[in-house]
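Protocol step 4 of 6.
Sequence for ABC transporter substrate-binding protein (Pandoraea aquatica) entered exactly as in the expression construct, tag removed. Do not edit the line below.
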Amino acid sequence: MWQRHLAGALFATLAMTGITHLAHADQLADIKARGTLVCGTQNASEPYAFPDAATRKIVGFDVDVCTALAKGLGVKLEHRALSTDARIPELKTRRVDVLAAAVAWMPARAAQVDFSDQYFVAPIRVLVRADSPVQTLDQLSGKKIAASEGSSSAAVSVTRLPDSNLLTFHDISSAFLALQQGKVEGLVAGQLILARFANEAAAKGGQQYRLLTKPVFEERWGVVMNKGEPALREAVNKILVDYDKTNGLQDSFEKWLGSKSVYKFTRDYKVEPIKVQ
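Step 5 output, C-alpha cells:
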C-alpha cells in the first residue's frame, strides 16, 4: 500500500514539475496573454533611469527602451525600478520579464542569463588634467593611473594598460581627488562619471580636465532575459532593430546622452549581436 502512495506522490510531484516547466516554457506567450511587459531598470542611475524631479516618475534612456519593447510587443508596460544588486535576482525569480538596466555583458553573467543584441555601448575612458602632456593611451606607460577598487575599470586597466602603474582607491571620488592633487596622471572610469567630473570642474572655473579620445574598453549593454526563451529573445532583437531604424534609439540617445544633454556624447555604435572583446 505504501508503495502505491509513494508512487502516486512521486507522479504528482513530477507532474507539477512538468506543469511548472511548461508554464515558463514560452515567456513571450505569457507576456502577450497577460497583456503586460514587466521591464526592470535601475532605480537611481541618471540619465539611464532616475526619478524626474517634477513628476516623480522614473525616466531615462533605459526607460525609453522598456517603453519601446512594450510597444513593439503590443502590450502595456509595467515598469519596475530596481537596485543594482536586485536586478538579476528579480529576473531569475521571474518578478520581472526583462531588464533594460545598464547590464553590461560579462562571461559570468552570460552563464546565468541571456542577452539581446546591444542597444548601448558604454566606453571606459581615461580622464587627465587639461595641461597634461598625455594625449594617447600609450603615453600612460610607466605613469600612475587611478581607478575605483573592485570596479570593472580597475580590472580592464590591468590587462589593457599593463605598462601603467595602477593605484586603486576606496571609491571613485577618492580616485578623482588623487588626479586633482597630481598624485596620478589619469583616472580610469566610465565615460559618464568622468564627463560629470570634468563638467563640474569647468563650472567651478578651477583645474580643467579632458578625456583621452580612445577608450580603454567598451562595455556592451543588452536587454537581459532568462535562459531558454528563444521566442522572447528573437522578438526583443527585432524590436531593437526597428527602434533603431525608425530613429527612436537615436532620438533617445540625443535627449539623454547626446546633443540635447549636458554630456554631448556622440553615438558610434549600432544595434547588433554583442561581440566578445
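Step 6, annotate. The two ends are 61 Å apart (CA to CA).
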